[in-house]
Amino acid sequence: MKRLILMRHAKSDWSGSGQDHDRPLNPRGRRSAGAMGDWLREQGLLPDEVLSSSSMRTRETLVRLNLPEETPTTFTRDLYLAPHHDILRTLRRATGKTVLMLGHNPGIGWFAREIVAHAPDHPQFDQYPTCATLVAEFDIDDWRDADWGKADARHFVVPREL
């Protein structure tokens, strides 16, 4: 059994004039990421591996989740604004039992819809808003066997519900 925690980065700050890759979180995003980290701990859903986009907003989201420092983490440009098929390719290289992936829309939302056998009954699942998080389980022994429609959705939560 493998578990995927699929999270879109928290709300970012659009007030700066720098590069998109370098945008930080805004105050609401910082609060949302902290609340999502609390929720993950309360549910006993701490990852043993993190695969994250290299962007500033995904990095800051991860910091605000307040996961154990020893959690192996890979930051990759491959997940920055990645389409769904690139996200799957990255997931298939994972080694942990419970993997947290942090990325961006529209790819992360598209990936979430395609990876589960049945979409969660949640009014915001199709929009996959900032810091939205899907927890899905696969009946596989190796991430190389992850494929479209093979995951069972266990939770879908957005920060406003926390």
CATH topology: Rossmann fold
Instruction: Tell me the β content.
Output: 15-25%
Name given to the CATH homologous superfamily: Phosphoglycerate mutase-like
Round the Cα radius of gyration to an integer and report it: 14 Å
Summed up, the helix count is 4
Portion of residues in helices?
25-40%
Shape annotation:
globular
Distance N to C terminus: 27 Å
Number of domains: 1
Q: Based on DSSP secondary structure assignment, what is the total number of beta strands?
A: 6
SSE order in H/E notation?
EHEHEHEHEE
Largest beta sheet, briefly?
6 strands, mixed
Could you state the oligomeric state of the chains shown? single chain
Quote the average pLDDT.
96
Strand order of the largest sheet: 3-2-4-1-5-6
Task: Pick out the low-confidence regions.
Answer: none
Protein name: Histidine phosphatase family protein
Organism: Sulfitobacter sediminis
Pfam families: His_Phos_1
Region (Disordered): 10-33
Description:
It comes from Sulfitobacter sediminis. The protein has 162 residues and is an alpha/beta fold. It has a single domain (2-12, 22-134), classed as Phosphoglycerate mutase-like (Rossmann fold), CATH 3.40.50.1240. It is 27% helix and 22% strand. The protein has helices at residues 27-43, 56-65, 84-91, 107-115; strands at 2-8, 49-53, 73-76, 98-103, 133-138, 151-157. Helix 2 links the parallel strand 2 and strand 3 (73-76). The two termini are 27 Å apart.
What secondary-structure arrangement, pairings included, does this model have?
Elements lengths: L1 E7 L18 H17 L5 E5 L2 H10 L7 E4 L7 H8 L6 E6 L3 H9 L17 E6 L12 E7 L5
Parallel strand pairs: 1-4, 2-3, 2-4
Antiparallel strand pairs: 1-5, 5-6
Helix pairs in contact: 1-2, 3-4
